[in-house]
Structures are given as C-alpha cells and as structure tokens.
Amino acid sequence: MDSCKDKIRELYLSGDWRGIVQLFENGFCDEKLLWFQPDLDGIDFLEKSLATVGVKGISSIGCGTGLLEWIINSSTAVPVERE
After folding, report:
1. Which residues contact 14 (CB under 8 A, 6 or more apart)?
2. Interstrand relation of 80-81 and 58-59 (parallel, antiparallel or unpaired)
3. What superkingdom heads the lineage (predicted)?
4. The model's pTM
5. Do the Cβ atoms of 71 and 17 come closer than 8 Å?
6. How do the domains of the chain map onto residue ranges?
7. Collapsing DSSP states into helix, strand and coil, what is residue 80?
8. DSSP E strands: which ranges in 1-83?
C-alpha cells in the first residue's frame, strides 16, 4: 500500500474527514478509493443544500468503498443507509 493510501486509512480511522478532503484538494488522486473527490467548498454546499431541502438521510447504492458516504455523514451528520 502506498503512503497516500496509508494516510487516508490513518485519517479515516481517526475520524478526520477534513484531512482526507484536504489530501484530495492538494492533488492526491486515486479513483479506486474515491472517484468523486469533493473539496471543502463542495462539502459546505452539500451540507447547506441537504438542510435547505430537509433531507433526513441518504441511501448508499453500495458501488464503491463507502468513503464518500462516510465523508458526507461525518461532515453533515446526515445518516447514511447502507442496506
């Protein structure tokens, strides 16, 4: 496993979603881990949009690593259904 993947795992295990987003903002790109790589502005926009329309939860269709759903849940507190 390369050092960037190790760093993402470390940040994930410590609950640091901001650190993971900052890695992607700084140019780390591994589409196997997260094909859509949000930045902090995108996360802020998503949080405000979900609140504006009153979203109480989102569903994961289970076609990736779950990292994006984890970032969304961790940053917005909107629950993610994974079943």
Report:
1. none
2. parallel
3. Eukaryota
4. 0.77
5. yes
6. 3-81
7. strand
8. 58-59, 80-81
